[in-house]
Amino acid sequence: MDTIGRLKLLSSQMSFEADVENRGSGGLDTSLGVPRDYSTTDSSPQKPACFTPKEKDQAFVHPAQLPNGKQILLLKTLLSSACERDCFYCPFRAGRDFRRATFKPEEFANLFAKLNQSHAAEGLFISSGLAGGGSRTQDKLLDTADILRNKLGFRGYIHLKIMPGAEKAQVFRAMQLADRVSINLEAPNTDRLSRLAPHKIFLEELLQPLRWVDEIRKTVPAYKGWNGRWPSSVTQFVAGGADESDLELLTTTEWLHKNVHLSRAYFSAFSPIPDTPLENKAATHPLREHRLYQASFLLRDYGFDLEELPFVDDGGNLPLASDPKLAWARENLSERPVEINRAEKRDLLRVPGIGPKGAEAILRARREGRLFELSNLRKLGVAVQRAAPFVLVNGHRSPTQISMF
Could you give the 3-state DSSP secondary structure of residue 87? Predict the structure, then answer.
């Protein structure tokens, strides 16, 4: 198989790996879209290269938004699809009958440099199947990133996966090469993980590296990290794969934010893969993934506690028919609307249609004078139709507000 054929094969199953900042955020109050500006990218190695239109089309590259808001073209791929683990849901599991491919570190680094030089890819998300143990696989990923950074001069975005079983020194080295590191917990706890990946160890193999990342950030000066700062850390869960509840997933997510300073959790709705033990399991409704994102942002950015989230049944699941912030507001603010001119930031953030940027804009505007009508809020970036049923403006409900019931 030629080089481009291998790249296409290795990247074709990476859609379940998330790295896009605005994924799942629709319906929230934050505005995550920014205009693209590729002219500011400083990620190109020095030597020119040629990449044909056909090759560009075959590469698995897509638009992505970085944590700083910048938009880039991101290549998401594996270094190898060979894997010794037999996770029940995974397309790369050992023993599954499909064509596999592998790149050597220097071979892949040179290929990505060619993509980058041709402006077909500006950033890289790289993972791998696990073969020969987590430590050996991690070394290959580190070698790839090291060649890109220190031999080929690539200074753009790299998201580097940490393998189950990686050593602490390898985690440290990954943090010296990458803008973001991650390891997928896949499930919220040991019991649920056993139903998805029976040969992975939740605490020692998956959670421990996230603890090491946090420890390193706390104890080692940031100038030793890539580009003078430590990378962000994220994880991902397979929502619905182990019959876990939303409460279980969000309990673990909240713990990770508070205890290992996780930047964010990603959720991938379970979808059955042919020729795996879970091939006959029903797919998770995509709205569940969406609601989990919304709830996780409420915990991370909006000051909500887990106990305040509107779980609808004893099973601990969120409502699919309504986003959790709106469901909370209907229960708590319909008869006790928030006065825009007096509310603290914490209370403003609980109003549908008001996100962190909108709350800050309201506080700044109040320092210059009172707000008298909904049109004042619209000019501040507030989604007025969503906010109107739950606010007072200068002591009054708007006579033109649109009912949400």
Answer: coil
Q: Are residues 72 and 190 in the same domain?
A: yes
Provide the sign of the torsion angle of the four alpha carbons 96, 101, 104, 108, taken in this order.
Answer: negative
**Same domain? 118 vs 172:** yes
How confident is residue 29, by pLDDT bands cut at 50, 70 and 90? very low
Q: Is residue 229 part of a domain?
A: yes
- What is the tens place of the pLDDT at every residue in 269-308? 999 999 999 999 999 999 999 999 999 999 999 999 999 9
Nearest alpha-carbon partner for 250 in 320, 318, 328, 202? 318
Domain boundary among 267, 291, 308: 308
Per-residue model confidence (pLDDT) at position 15: 65
**What are the helix (H) ranges across 265-403?**
286-301, 324-332, 345-348, 356-366, 374-379, 384-387
pLDDT at 19: 63
The tally of domains found in the chain comes to: 2
Tell me the residue length of the chain.
405
Residue 86 token pair: 């037999």
Domain match, 361 and 291 both: no
Pair 269, 295: CB distance under 8 Å: no
pLDDT at 64 over 70: yes
Question: Which one is predicted more confidently, 12 or 135?
Answer: 135
Residue 266 and residue 157 in one domain: yes
What is the pTM (predicted TM-score) of this model? 0.86
Give buried/exposed letters for 258-269 (b at 16+ CB in 10 A, else e).
eebebbbbbbbb
281 and 359 belong to one structural domain: no
